[in-house]
Every structure is written in C-alpha cells, then in structure tokens.
Design goal:
Length: 140
Amino acid sequence: MDLEEEAYNIIRRHKDGVFQNVIWKELDIDSRKCSRIVKKLLDKDLIVREVGVSNGARTYLLKAKEEVKEKYDLLLAGEMFSSCTGCSFDCEPEYCGKLSEWIGNLRAEESGELQEIEEIEEAEENEEDFRDQEEAEEGV
Ligand code: SF4
C-alpha cells in the first residue's frame, strides 16, 4: 500500500474528518510531503478540505467524499488498491506482477469469505443434528 492509499484510508476512517497534521504524524512523513499527497487526493476529487485549527495551529480538516468512497471500494481487495489505480505505465496485463498480486489478494479475500460461510453452515447443521437428537430422545 503506498502513502496515498494509506492517507486516504486514514481519512476514510474518520467519518467526521481528520486534521492534516494528524495524517503526516501518523504516516511519519513531513508536512510538505503530506501536502503533496493531499493535493493528489483533492485532484482526484476523493476528499474535501476545510481550514481548521488543531492545538492552536492552523491546519486543514480533511473528509472523504462518500459517493466517491463507494466507487473507490470497488478498487479495493481488502486494504489493497487495484494495482492499476493511477498506474501510468505502458502495460501488458498478462505479464504484470503487480496485477497478479492484486488478483491473488482478491482470491484470498474471497476464500476467506467462503470459509466464513462454511463455518456458519456447519454450525447450523450441528444445531439441527442436536435438535433431531433431542426430539428422538423425547420420542423414546
Ligand atoms: S496491469 Fe500492471 S502495468 Fe498495467 S495498468 Fe495495471 S498495474 Fe499498471
């Protein structure tokens, strides 16, 4: 995950907005670098920025745009953005390691969901078996 994605995830986590100085501290980068990352997110129209004051210092309050967030989710495999998001390389997708890795994460996430469904189904079957056993014992 690159810094831009991490910054965006931090902003998304704070539904009421987060001060820009919190982001650069959390990412352990300097404020100028953070400003460049924020500018990229603003240019992509993913966030909004308001002037604010944090601990007496002038900073910006950043918020994720909800309607864009939903579209952004489609580009995520777990916490990881699609490798093609913002990619400007000339590419041959069939040979791209980044894309293969992202697809691998999609598969891993899907198998995790399948495992969860299987566990729920197994628990339901066990509960049915238990009820059948109880009914059989009462009938005896
Ligand atoms: S397939 Fe690879 S090179 Fe092509 S756009 Fe996606 S990440 Fe970039």
